Amino acid sequence: MSAFRERLDALCRELHVPSPVQSLTPDWPGAQAVHISIKRDDLIHPVISGNKWRKLSPTLLSLSSPPSRLISFGGGFSNHLHALGYASHRLQLPFTAFVRGDYRQHPTPMLRDLHHWGTDVRYLTKADYRRRHDPAFVSSLHGDAPQALVIPEGGSQQSALAGIQHSLKEQPLVFDTVICPVASGATLAGLVSALEGHQQAMGIAVLKGQQYLESLVSNLLDRPYANWHIEHAYHHGGYARNTDELIAFCDAFETQTSVPAEPVYSGKMLFAVRHMISKGMFPEGHRVLLIHTGGLQGARSY
Ligand SMILES: *Cc1c(COP(=O)(O)O)cnc(C)c1O
């Protein structure tokens, strides 16, 4: 076996999969009328964040030989760049991360980790960052780009869906509605495509994007599906925006359940679920499965 494949196998052996599913009994109004469980993808690896591993794994596992370089994109707190930075360090793959904005004066904990892992970090102006989907522009940024494996922002591409589908199939799960946070839509799209029978998927938008987020999900799916929708009332002002109420909710939830919640993704999802349950939006006895998508590294700056 190649050294690359051995490194990949060693990384895979560290993963805590299937990720544990636990039932939740929070003291939320109305919560006793429904069954809530949470799939703890935040626990699959101490460094690689839950859904980012799920989305990257089909790409990494399909490589028969190592690419000369990985290239990807993200913000200064990106869970995706963090997961990919760690994976490329472990796999000894050269990795260039293009970051939106210039953090040289104030590197985030995420960027410090990337530097520690030997990632080639390049800062782009917001205007240049907008051109990240243009292959000619990417080539002009990086001479290796024609041979490099370019992974889109968030790891969100068609191939990512298989990793999310796998997460829903890796153990028997009994639920009526599965719920996850939504940013680029690949996690929700993967869940939607893995549902059976009467099951529904619900996304909680973590940014302002009515219609836009729906189109991202639809574009990733191979055909139209009728078993999903996105709730848009719980973004708390936009991506990575929050309120004192949300922060206090996350703290209280964590104290009560011992399940960590950060305010960018999982906290907004949990806040939404509490609110919807209190409004009686789920019938009595409904079985809700929450996906804890990880992302706790991003909360180190809070
Ligand atoms: C990236 C991320 C999401 C959003 O997933 P998408 O597939 O981009 O919709 C949700 N939760 C966490 C923790 C993330 O890091």
Descriptive report:
The longest helix has 14 residues, at 244-257. It contains eleven helices and ten strands. The protein has a six-stranded mixed β-sheet, sandwiched between helices. The protein has a four-stranded parallel β-sheet with strand order 5-4-3-6. With 302 residues, it is α/β, with parallel strands linked by helices. Helix 2 (50-61) packs across helix 7 (160-169) and helix 10 packs across helix 11 (266-278). Strand 4 (95-100), helix 4 and strand 5 form a beta-alpha-beta unit. The protein has helices at residues 3-13, 50-61, 79-91, 109-116, 126-129, 135-141, 160-169, 186-192, 212-220, 244-257, 266-278; strands spanning 21-24, 35-40, 70-74, 95-100, 120-124, 149-151, 177-182, 200-205, 228-231, 287-292. The model has no long low-confidence stretch (mean pLDDT 96). It binds pyridoxal-5'-phosphate. Pyridoxal-5'-phosphate is lined by residues 49, 51-52, 79, 154, 156, 181-188, 265, 293-295.
Question: How would you summarize the topology of this molecule?
Answer:
Blueprint: H1 3-13, E1 21-24, E2 35-40, H2 50-61, E3 70-74, H3 79-91, E4 95-100, H4 109-116, E5 120-124, H5 126-129, H6 135-141, E6 149-151, H7 160-169, E7 177-182, H8 186-192, E8 200-205, H9 212-220, E9 228-231, H10 244-257, H11 266-278, E10 287-292
Parallel strand pairs: 2-10, 3-4, 3-6, 4-5, 7-8, 7-10, 8-9
Antiparallel strand pairs: 1-2
Helix pairs in contact: 2-7, 3-4, 7-8, 10-11
The protein binds pyridoxal-5'-phosphate.
Residues 49, 51-52, 79, 154, 156, 181-188, 265, 293-295 line the site of pyridoxal-5'-phosphate (PLP).
Protein name: 1-aminocyclopropane-1-carboxylate deaminase
Organism: Alteromonas halophila
GO molecular function: D-cysteine desulfhydrase activity
